[in-house]
C-alpha cells in the first residue's frame, strides 16, 4: 500500500463518510486512493466552505469531519474554517498537499510553511515525512481532535511521500478509549450545599453542554427543582426553551432582561461554559443565604421578556421587522423535532438568538466563537446531508451570503432540499448599528446586490423575492413543501436595532 492508500484506509476505519474540499495536483495519489474507497468526495467551490462543512459534521456528530486542499493558496484558504472549528470546539481534520520533499524541480513555487501556519490555529499539526508513521499520525490526529475540548488538527502529505510504499503491517485502530472526567463525591456534596443555601439560583447552559448528550439528566434536574435557566448563544437548545423555567438567551452582552436575572442571582450553576464565548455576567458575591428559594422575581422577568419579544411580531410594515421574521420562523419550526436553523453572522443572529425558542439540541447552529461571515450556507449543506429528513434553513445576511454563494452549485449537485433565507439590507447591518450607537456618521458599510432571484435561477435553484410582509411565511412553507434548492430574498428593517437594543432595553428597569 502507498502512504496515500494507508491514509484513506485509516479514514475509513475512523468512520469517515465524506471528505470535503478542492484537490490539486499534489493530492492526486490521495485522490486516486479515495476514488476506490467507501468515502465520498464532496468537491466544493471554495476551500473555506469545505472546512465549514467538515466542521459542522464534527459539531453534529462528535467525530472529526475531514477537509482537503492542495498546498499554498489552497491551504491558506482553509485558515478561516480551521479557526472556526478550533474556537467553536468542533472536531476537525484538514489534510493538505505539498511539493515533493525528497527532490523537487520547482524551487519554492507555491511553497509556504503550512505546518507552522497551522500551529497557532490547531490542537495538532504535522507533516507525514515517513510512510511508516502515516497510520500513527492519523490515529493521533483523530484522538486529539475529538478529545475534550474538541478542535482542529492538520496533516500535510507531500506529493512524493504519498506515492511511496508502506512496509509492514498497517494498524489504523485507536487504542485510546474515550475518557470523561467525573466530579468527586466531595464536589457534588459541596454543589448540593450551595444550591440548598442559595436564595436566587440560576442555571447557565453554554456551548460545552451542546457537545455532550446531557439533555435527559439536566432536563430531569430542572423539572424536579424548578430552578430557572438561561443559555448562551451556543448553548441554545440543550433544553426545550418552551419550558416555563427558561429565562432567555444572552444574545446581547448586557442590558437585557436576562441580565437582570443573572445579576439578581446569588448562585449560578454553569453547565458547559466555554471561555471562548463572552461571559454573560460578572457576578458580585452575595452574602444572602436562605433555606428555601425565592424564584418569583424570575417568573416576573420571564413574563416581561416574553411580552417584549412578541412586540411588533405581527407588524405589517415593509421591509419586514426582525420581530415578525423571528416569530414566523418560530411558527414554521414549532415542533420539538421539526428542523435546523443554520445562521450566518449578522444582526439577525442577535434577534434570532434572543427571540427564537429552540426545542432540541443543535437545532440552532450559530457561531458565537469566531463569529465569521460566510459559514451559514456551507453549514446548512452539511446539516442537510446529515439530516435529510429534517427541514434545514440557512439564514444569511446579504453580505455573508455573497461570501459563500457559489456553494449553491454544491447544494444543487448534491440534490439537497435546502432553503436559503437572505435578510437583505444592502449593507453590513451589524457594523452599521454599532457605528450609529457610537454616534458616528454612516460611512463605508453600504453596497449593491445582484438580483437574487435571477442569481438563484442561474444555479438552477428557485428564486423568490418578498415584496410585502405577508409573503414570507407562505414562501418558506412552499419552499419546504416543493423540495430542491430555494433562495428567498427578504428585505429587513434594521431601524429596530437602535429602537430596541439602544433605547428600549437600556431604559428598562430590573425592579419588577
UniProtKB/TrEMBL annotation:
Residues 190-274 form the Thiamine pyrophosphate enzyme central domain. Gene3D superfamilies: 3.40.50.970, TPP-binding domain (3.40.50.1220). Pfam families: TPP_enzyme_C (PF02775), TPP_enzyme_M (PF00205), TPP_enzyme_N (PF02776). One of its GO terms (molecular function) is thiamine pyrophosphate binding. Keywords: Thiamine pyrophosphate. It comes from the Bacteria. GO terms for cellular component: acetolactate synthase complex. One of its GO terms (biological process) is L-valine biosynthetic process. Belongs to the TPP enzyme family. This is Acetolactate synthase I/II/III large subunit.
Amino acid at each position: 500500500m502507498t502512504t496515500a492508500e494507508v491514509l484513506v484506509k485509516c479514514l475509513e476505519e475512523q468512520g469517515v463518510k465524506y471528505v470535503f474540499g478542492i484537490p490539486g495536483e499534489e493530492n492526486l495519489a490521495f485522490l486516486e486512493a479515495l476514488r476506490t474507497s467507501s468515502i465520498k468526495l464532496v468537491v466544493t467551490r471554495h476551500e473555506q466552505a469545505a472546512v465549514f462543512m467538515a466542521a459542522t459534521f464534527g459539531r453534529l456528530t462528535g467525530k472529526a469531519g475531514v477537509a482537503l486542499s492542495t498546498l499554498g493558496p489552497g491551504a491558506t484558504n482553509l485558515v478561516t474554517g480551521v479557526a472556526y472549528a478550533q474556537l467553536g470546539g468542533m472536531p476537525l481534520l484538514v489534510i493538505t498537499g505539498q511539493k515533493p520533499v525528497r527532490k523537487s524541480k520547482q524551487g519554492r513555487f507555491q511553497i509556504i510553511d503550512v505546518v507552522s501556519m497551522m500551529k497557532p490555529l490547531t490542537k495538532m499539526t504535522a507533516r507525514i515525512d515517513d510512510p511508516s508513521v502515516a497510520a500513527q499520525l492519523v490515529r493521533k490526529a483523530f484522538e486529539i481532535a475529538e478529545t475534550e475540548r474538541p478542535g482542529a488538527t492538520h496533516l500535510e502529505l507531500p506529493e512524493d511521500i504519498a506515492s511511496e510504499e508502506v512496509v509492514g503491517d498497517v494498524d489504523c485502530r485507536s487504542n485510546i478509549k474515550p475518557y470523561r472526567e467525573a466530579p468527586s463525591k466531595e464536589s457534588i456534596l459541596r454543589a448540593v450545599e450551595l444550591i440548598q443555601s442559595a436564595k436566587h439560583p440560576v442555571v447557565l447552559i453554554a456551548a460545552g453542554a451542546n457537545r455532550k448528550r446531557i439533555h435527559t439528566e439536566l432536563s430531569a434536574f430542572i423539572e424536579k427543582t424548578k430552578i430557572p435557566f438561561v443559555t448562551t448563544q451556543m448553548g441554545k437548545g440543550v433544553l426545550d426553551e418552551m419550558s416555563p423555567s427558561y429565562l432567555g438567551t444572552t444574545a446581547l452582552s448586557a442590558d437585557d432582561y436576562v441580565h437582570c436575572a443573572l445579576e439578581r442571582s446569588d448562585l449560578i450553576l454553569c453547565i458547559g461554559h466555554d471561555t471562548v464565548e463572552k461571559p454573560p455576567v460578572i457576578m458580585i458575591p452575595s452574602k444572602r443565604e436562605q433555606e428555601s428559594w425565592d424564584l418569583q422575581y424570575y417568573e416576573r422577568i420571564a413574563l416581561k421578556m416574553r411580552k417584549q419579544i412578541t412586540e411588533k411580531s405581527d407588524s405589517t410594515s415593509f421591509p419586514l421587522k426582525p420581530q415578525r421574521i423571528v416569530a414566523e420562523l418560530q411558527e414554521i419550526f414549532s415542533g420539538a423535532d421539526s428542523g435546523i436553523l443554520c445562521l450566518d453572522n449578522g444582526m439577525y443572529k442577535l434577534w434570532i438568538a434572543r427571540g427564537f425558542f429552540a426545542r432540541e439540541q443543535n437545532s440552532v447552529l450559530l457561531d458565537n466563537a469566531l463569529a465569521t461571515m460566510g459559514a451559514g450556507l456551507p453549514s446548512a449543506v452539511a446539516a442537510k446531508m446529515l439530516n435529510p429528513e429534517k427541514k434545514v434553513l440557512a439564514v444569511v445576511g446579504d453580505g455573508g451570503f455573497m461570501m459563500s454563494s457559489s456553494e449553491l452549485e454544491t447544494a444543487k449537485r448534491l440534490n439537497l432540499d435546502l432553503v436559503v433565507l437572505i435578510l437583505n439590507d444592502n449593507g453590513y447591518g451589524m457594523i452599521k448599528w454599532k457605528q450609529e450607537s457610537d454616534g458616528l456618521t454612516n460611512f463605508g458599510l453600504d453596497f449593491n446586490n445582484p438580483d437574487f432571484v435571477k442569481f438563484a435561477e442561474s444555479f438552477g435553484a428557485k428564486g423568490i423575492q418578498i415584496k410585502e410582509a405577508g409573503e414570507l411565511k407562505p414562501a418558506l412553507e412552499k419552499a419546504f413543501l416543493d423540495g430542491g434548492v430555494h433562495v428567498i430574498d427578504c428585505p429587513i428593517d434594521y431601524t429596530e436595532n437602535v429602537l430596541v437594543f439602544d433605547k428600549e432595553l437600556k431604559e428598562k428597569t430590573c425592579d419588577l
